[in-house]
Design a protein that fits this description.
Elements lengths: L6 H4 L3 H15 L1 H10 L15 H23 L5 E3 L3 H12 L4 H21 L1 H8 L2 H23 L2 E4 L3 E4 L5 H18 L5 H15 L25 H5 L7 H28 L11 H18 L4 E3 L3 H6 L6 H13 L11 H15 L11 H16 L3 H18 L8 H17 L1
Antiparallel strand pairs: 1-4, 2-3
Amino acid sequence: MKKYFQFEELGTNYRREIIGGITTFLAMAYILALNPLILTLADVKDLPDAMRMDYGSVFVATALAAAVGSFIMGFVARYPIGLAPGMGLNAFFAYTVILTYHIPWQTGLTGVFFSGVIFIILSLTGIRETIINAIPVQLKYAVSAGIGFFVTFVGLKNAGIVVASKSTFITLGDFTDGNVLLAIIGIVITVILVARKAKAGIFYGMVITAIIGMIFGLVEVPKAIVSAIPSVAPTFGVALDPVIHDPSSLFNVKFLVVVLTFLFVDFFDTAGTLMAVANQAGLVKDDKLPRAGRALMADALGTTVGSIFGTSTTTAYVESTAGVAAGAKSGFTAVVVGIMFLLALFFSPLLSVVTTAVTTPALVIVGVMMASSLRLIKWDEFEIAVPAFLTMFMMPMGYSIASGIAVGFIFYPITMLLAGRRKEVHPLMYVLFFVFLAYFIWVR
């Protein structure tokens, strides 16, 4: 096992990998609660039951899709990256596909399935890997730093430390709120642990924050440890029903837009996450990602299998950087993440302690660590600085990794051409220029 996962070469061991895997899982665990709530449209009142997915079934599908995707990432690609149904794409599935387009959730799952199959084809042909390796190293640094800003912003927003404002768009939250204070205390504790070079400081910071929350009644104390696993029957295999029984329902513009949106956003979200995590873990060699094709295949298979179980697009999670920060470096970490998701099926009551206040400290510290790639960007070269800056800035501002990549990659060939450096631009970057323009004009 040690030899297969290259423990000696990577300078890691079982303890680091297990702690890294648990840390990544805890940072991702919120998806087990949020994904069912979003896909069942729990916050929408007076909705016919036929338009809602089954909560218990979606919970099981979420855990199984995450486990399968993470196992493939760990065993095949050997990257310390956890996968699960992605935030953002699940909201698009629920509020746009079902509520706005009035497409049945069954057909929506078919759209996810088709996007997964296209992912597999693109991965087998090597197109996705070629695109990632064609991205200039300066923009890879920008993507890594931008994701750092993005995850920090997500953490602060989820904890209520920053909130929406009508006058200034964004402002500081209510610091008298117990959960906000808990998140701030957690950040302070985690900063102290990491600054003192404590091994697995991020993981212990989350544990201490959860304990403090339970002591003061801010985090619910689990009433049970083990619970029965709900049936996945209501959603299992439903994605294939329209293909078999009513294929004519798939031949329309709305369904095409659904497939293209899932395809585009997942493609570049995963590419950005993969580059960022690999860069942080020191796995990038000669400005390229070893086994990138396998990692992308893990994402493609995870999406396809997840759609059959009954959930929206499965994607690589940027929260994996929390596990890397805790010491993870090999694919064994992803295997641990997969095991944790399977165990979560039996121990779901314990997930009540993993609140946004508990995960925020990890996301903030990870953001700090990922921002270190800023020093590697050539800021004195304006044609590099502009697309790099826009890539980073638009991720938190557009609340999307894919949007940040799109904006930066549109400007890159323009500034390089104007600076007389067109020969340094890979031909694929010109192709991506038009792809991203089309995305903003017709899809976005």
